[in-house]
Amino acid sequence: MTGTIVVSQLGARMHYAVPRILAQEGQLGHFFTDICGTKSWPALIRTLPPSVLPAALKRLTGRVPNGVPPALITDFPLFGVRSAIRRLRIGNALEETSHAVWAGRHFSQLVAGRGFHGAAGLYAYSGDALEQMRAAKRQGMWTAVEQMIAPRTVVEAIMAEEMRRFPEWAGPPARNPFADIFAARERAEWALADCILCPSGFVRDHVVAEGGPADRCVVVPYGVDARERPRAAGRAAGPLRVLVVGEVGLRKGSPYVLQAAERLGTAVEIRMAGPDRLPPSLRRRMGRAIELRGIVPRQQMAAEYDWADVFLLPSLCEGSATVVYEALAAGLPVVTTYATGSVVRDGVEGFIVPERDPQAIVEAIRALADNAERRIAMSANARHAAREHTVDKYGGRLIEALSRLRPDRGQTQ
């Protein structure tokens, strides 16, 4: 890889892992984002006592890309505030997708208008990248786009099927014209990209199935720096403790968690930590079989992992769920699906079960509850896998993937 790289990113995705990694390697040319807690008015607000700040404002000003030199950062705080206000008004999936299209296009235009600081390449994110990729190509730069989750057409098809199966969860499916616009942006970005970074084989397979160039798709699993904590060889007396983390909803496979919980009965205790938009009647039904923890602050999540014996995430569509990496670091055997995009190997760190199969979840959990030796072995394997998927290891994989790219209209070596 010759020259430096510009990164553009909405929000604090993965705690700014990509710009931090490139800055550490001396290869970050510039970083564009919406709101940065060390720049302009957010930096001034951070000087106020936290007790006087509203929670939403505290979250925004808490976006601090540690390890990225402030001189290399350009933020767009007015756009960021406008976007945050719009997000507060979102009431359904159609409005959410409409906002994603608006925010991605607007942010990408802002980045394209600022120039690329003499960099050789551009690293951006799917749906937020099209205008800046076009501008970078005009300057002879190579471009890389990270496809964070399966293509929008795939997500929409999965969600529509689940809404037909479980109308009580989110109502009947409705056509979303903004999804078509978002999907068109993704396809245009693939066509321009010299490298499409996919966090899992699940994402890569669907990009190719939707017409993306297979020869430019590279799988780069993520990494997290979750603190490894000692676990007792045995477990607490009583039912097996199962933890689920993430928004309670259709994409995460929550209806199948509920069905499995009802079949398992008192043989397990299941906790779900994450927000939900459930109607009261459904929340009451879930509450009879599952402990709904709601939103758990990040600093308190370690206690949730410590409580659990097993981690469960039967998602129907992800990129590569970082909560699974955190569960592995906590030494938890993981029951999950291929669609979660995890690095878990079936029978090694846990079990890979089919999507939409509550009975398979039941059988996997029973297998772990009934066989302490297997559970302990999978716990040890989980810790070993986590050590291979730290942020440093992720950085090495990322740099290797980008090292084949060079300028001159994005030609590869």
Strand content: 5-15%
Rg, nearest Å: 22 Å
CATH class of the largest domain: Alpha Beta
Number of domains: 2
Would you tell me which CATH topology of the largest domain applies? Answer: Rossmann fold
Helix fraction? 40-55%
Name the CATH architecture of the largest domain: 3-Layer(aba) Sandwich
Mean pLDDT: 91
Task: Count every helix, treating DSSP H or I runs of 4 or more residues as helices.
Answer: 17
String of helices and strands? EHEHHEHHEHEHHHEHEEHEHEHEHEEHHH
Count of DSSP strands? 13
The largest sheet is: 7 strands, parallel
Q: Helix/strand-derived class?
A: alpha/beta
Question: Kindly, what is the distance between the CA atoms of the first and last residues, rounded to a whole number of angstroms?
Answer: 9 Å
Low-confidence stretches: 409-413
As laid out across the biggest beta sheet, the strand order is: 3-2-1-4-5-6-7
